[in-house]
Amino acid sequence: MSAFLFYPLAACALAGALGVVLARNPVRSALSLVVTLFFLAVFYVFLQAHLVAALQIIVYAGAVMVLFLFVITLLNLESDSGVRERPALAAAGFLAGAVVAILLAKGLLDSTVPDARGVTLGETFGTTKVLARQLFSEYLVAFELTSILLLVAVVGAVVLAKRTVEEGERDEARTMAAAEAETEAAHRVIAAHEAAHDHLDHGHAPHSGPGHVHAPAGGHH
Amino acid sequence: MIGTSHYLALSALLFAIGAVGVVVRRNVIIIFMSVELMLNAANLAFVAGANSLGTMGGQSIVFFVMTVAAAEAAVGLAVILALFRNRQTVSADEIALLRG
């Protein structure tokens, strides 16, 4: 990628990032973030990460940012709606951030990172096929775990978002009752298992059945 | 010629801007967006590293980072919604119940 392309694109990405931090209105912040995400997708294309670039647009710009905008509009947040910013804190933060940014960028620019010039990238580098093969072989466990993570996140988000103040307590009572009922059921299942085991141990296996579930300790006396 | 170090420097700048956003802004939603910005900066570093080393590992990690970020956004925004319903504010200064 030539410097001719890189610097304008990088400037746009950084401008979007600064827009996120500086904008007073949360909607403007969100839209600035979308700009940055789009330019990052462009960089991904140049770095031969085609699938990642597509996912960046679909998942981030498409799904996550729409979620952000939905929440902002749902809460009806106008520019600085009841949120007091602190000028002194902001000045200190920007100063510290500038120092960190300059040091990091300078250090990384001066570092000797092996460049793509030294490595010959294969014809299939970054294609969906190669990435998918890796995800489903080398990272299979992690991949499956992310599905569980997403399930938990979806359930958690629904549970958290649907509750209101008044209903919260009622819901709590209901979940407590449900939990108690569940524990009761679990105890019953465990008792049934124990009973079956006891019967097996004592040689009563042939007539140990569902009928003995409610009297698990009967065989001991 | 633009090399990997340029991408890493850009990634560092984006990360620093995100970190400043987390520290400076008091609006919870904007803090959250700054966190997303930091995650994206890390993603750029991963992809640049994958390109530089000629291995696909970095791109796979980006896939996972995106998944976790999406899950985090869903749960975090739900938390913000619940918080707003209970406290009618999104200011990080007023949500200080745990502060001693």
Report strand % of chain B: under 5%
Name the average pLDDT of chain B. 89
- Tell me the span between the first and last alpha carbons of chain B: 54 Å
Largest sheet of chain B: none
Kindly describe this structure.
The complex is a heterodimer of chains A (221) and B (100). With 221 residues, chain A is mostly helical. In chain A, 72% of the residues lie in helices and 0% in strands. Chain A is built from 7 helices and no strands. Chain A has helices at 3-22, 26-46, 50-74, 87-110, 128-137, 140-162, 165-201. In chain A, helix 2 runs antiparallel to helix 3 (50-74) and helix 5 packs across helix 6. The longest helix of chain A is centred in the last third of the chain and has 37 residues, at 165-201. The termini of chain A are far apart. In chain A, 20% of the residues are buried. Mean pLDDT of chain A is 79; it is low at 204-209 and 211-221. By secondary structure, chain B is mostly helical. Chain B contains 3 helices and no strands. In chain B, helix 1 runs antiparallel to helix 2. The longest helix of chain B is centred in the C-terminal third of the chain and has 31 residues, at 57-87. Classes of the chains: A mainly alpha (221), B mainly alpha (100). At the A-B interface, helix 1, helix 2, helix 3, helix 4 and helix 5 of A face helix 1, helix 2 and helix 3 of B.
Helices, strands, pairings?
The complex is a heterodimer of chains A (221) and B (100).
Chain A: H1 3-22, H2 26-46, H3 50-74, H4 87-110, H5 128-137, H6 140-162, H7 165-201
Helix pairs in contact in A: 1-2, 2-3, 5-6
Chain B: H1 4-24, H2 28-53, H3 57-87
Question: What are its keywords?
Answer:
heterodimer, A: 7 helices, 72% helix, extended, disordered C terminus, B: mainly alpha, elongated
